[in-house]
Amino acid sequence: MNRLVITACALFLAGGLLPALELPNFFSDHMVVQRDRPIVIWGTAKPGAGVTVNFKGKTRDTTAGEDGAWRVELPKEKASAGGRDLTVTSGGETRTISDVLVGEVWFASGQSNMAWPVSRTHEADADIARARYPAIRMFLADLTPARDPQSDIGGSWQVCTPENVPRWSAAAYFFALPLHKELGVPVGIIRSAWGGKPVETFTSREALAAIPEGKAMLAGLDAAIADYDPEAAAANHAAALEKWEKRLAAHKERKQAGKEVGRPPRKPALAKDPAVTEGKPGVLYNGMIHPFVGYPMRGAIWYQGESNANHGTAHIYRKLFSTMITDWRKRWDDEFSFLWVQLANFRQPANEPGAVDSWALLQDEQRRTLALPKTGMAVANDIGAADDIHPRNKKEVGRRLALWALKHDYGMDVVAHGPLYKRHTIDGDKVIITFDYAEGLKTRDGGFVQRIEIAGKDRVWHWADAEIKGNTLVVSSPAVPAPVAARYAWCSNPQGANLVNQAGLPASVFRTDDWPHEENSP
After folding, report:
1. pLDDT value for 521
2. Residue 172 located in a structural domain
3. At 78, which CATH number?
4. For residue range 145-187, what is the model confidence (pLDDT) as tens digits?
5. What is the spatial distance between Cα 346 and Cα 386, in angstroms, rounded to a whole number?
6. Does a structural domain hold residue 73?
7. Could you tell me if 501 and 436 are in contact, meaning their C-beta atoms sit under 8 angstroms apart?
8. Of 228, 455, 458, 472, which residue is most buried, by most CB within 10 angstroms?
9. pLDDT tens-digit map of 183-226
10. 48 with 67: CB under 8 angstroms?
């Protein structure tokens, strides 16, 4: 029987009866395509075969290349909430993609705070019960590390329902919701995020190789790849498993005898090939970003940085982050909007000025990345928790991201930013700090400005007094008669930081100095 099956399969393959027409996974039912832009569809077919794509009565023809690859551009469409079929035909085969909407498309990536599900947020039950928005869709990409750039990725488009939305990215959902309500158009989110991963893994090898910091990372990775021996790894794992099984059996015996045993021994893991280990430079770009390159979209939202703050690369985060943003835009051939969440407050507050703090350093690196065009940042240093790296108030995170998009991408008259440091001057014993986006500059509680500190040439920091004058702060301290620098909210949890604008949006952490900064990675 087995021989018959094998023979039949061989004949099937030889006869070319296997499906030749293929599309990437994200070209699938319930997808959303970007309005007012050419609709780009691609895939593979038999080399030289004709391919016809039809959507909303408009047709485009092309021919698959020698490698079978094909690509078509359909005319741009206005937003439409009525689901339509998109068909692709080649060589007698037809693929039908049902319930396709035209609207706004955003790409959501980063680590666990972007992946964090709606089900684990404040007021989750009520928000899930209300999640009946058929024109909001989300593609949930599978976790996919890869050695080389991939052309496809697992996952599926889902419609916003109480059954689906609990698994959705909370930050992305609460970003999409105000866009949908304010614009009145469908919104599609592509969520491709993986918790606990640094920015460099989402960046291509080519882009990393173009900067010294990236070259060093790639050299370390390539050395680890060269040293990796899969047979030795398997043998070591087998030996470790044998020892573990003996320890586990002994642990169970002691437990059954009523003795104190503590936790059972941890099962050893097989050492992974570094070339496909999630988190290594370029690996998640290959598997989770590259498949989507070319999919038209309005922009990207990003929530990441925790891993870089905790592993000694906060001081180069601006360089790494800017490299990634520029790389993505180059590959999409589109200067799309790129928005991110500044890290939220976390850990215990610092009681003294002059904190050595990688978290604050990375937050400031995020702020400085705003020098890139068409970028925006949602400040979140007032909604975190000392004991939880995952703020549960993702609704406010999403709302603040949406404010930027509504103002800058869609031209709405909203306040989109909290106060951002612009410049400073020294006037005798005072530091005068000027802000952008500071109309109605005030403190949230009506009290004195908290968490402002200044230093002189000795670089010793002291708490300072601050007087609000228009969109400026006049800062001084009796302990610093000749100040040269100022900082605000400079610690991982600047409890009490209270500077806001008239809209109640908080000021970002900032420093006016460029002094070398130690990292305190845990």
Report:
1. 52
2. yes
3. 2.20.130.20
4. 999 999 999 999 999 999 999 999 999 999 999 999 999 999 9
5. 4
6. yes
7. no
8. 455
9. 999 999 999 999 999 999 999 999 999 999 999 999 999 999 99
10. no
Kindly state whether residue 382 falls inside one of the protein's structural domains. no
Q: Which of 198-225 are b and which e, b meaning 16 or more Cβ less than 10 Å from the residue's Cβ?
A: bbbbbbbbebbeebebbeebbeebeeee
CB within 8 Å of 153: residues ≥ 6 apart: 24, 25, 26, 141, 142, 144, 192, 287, 288, 291, 292
User: What b/e readout covers 477-506, taking b as 16+ CB neighbours within 10 angstroms?
Assistant: beebeebbbbbbbbbbbbbebbbbbeeebb
How far apart are alpha carbons 43 and 27 in whole angstroms? Answer: 9
Per-residue burial over 3-33, b if 16 or more Cβ lie within 10 Å, else e, is: eeeeeeeeeeeeeeeeebbbbbbbbbbbbbb
Contact 293, 331 (CB under 8 A): yes
What pTM, to 2 d.p., does this model score?
0.94
Q: Within the chain, what is the greatest distance between any pair of CA atoms?
A: 94
Using CA atoms, how far apart are residues 462 and 188, in angstroms rounded to an integer? 48
CA pair distance 356, 315, nearest whole angstrom: 12
Close Cβ partners of 65 (under 8 Å, ≥ 6 residues apart)? 47
